[in-house]
Amino acid sequence: MGLEGNGFEPEIALVFETGAVASLVSVLLDIRDEPHSASDICDHAGISRGTFYEHADQLKEYGILEQVDFGSASGYRLAETEVAAKLIELECELEDHRADVLETET
Asked: Which helix (H) or strand (E) holds 73?
């Protein structure tokens, strides 16, 4: 099959349609142990709150983002789903691969 495509977008391309979403997911992976405010996540991802909220519902639907209550406030974190677990696994595999590549380059 050629690269001309079949008219369908792969699901992963739909999830990571922008660099902002990739940055957002990267931050969620980094802070996955505790919920954080939307403002904190945006600051770390280098995106605006508007951009965060523009993509939040979609990331919730994909099982990547969840909203949780902590104390008297609510926040967000990486969801506790199979999809999120696979993202963590992929991140670890990519880190291992990068370390191997860097090791062979030296």
From this structure: strand 73-78
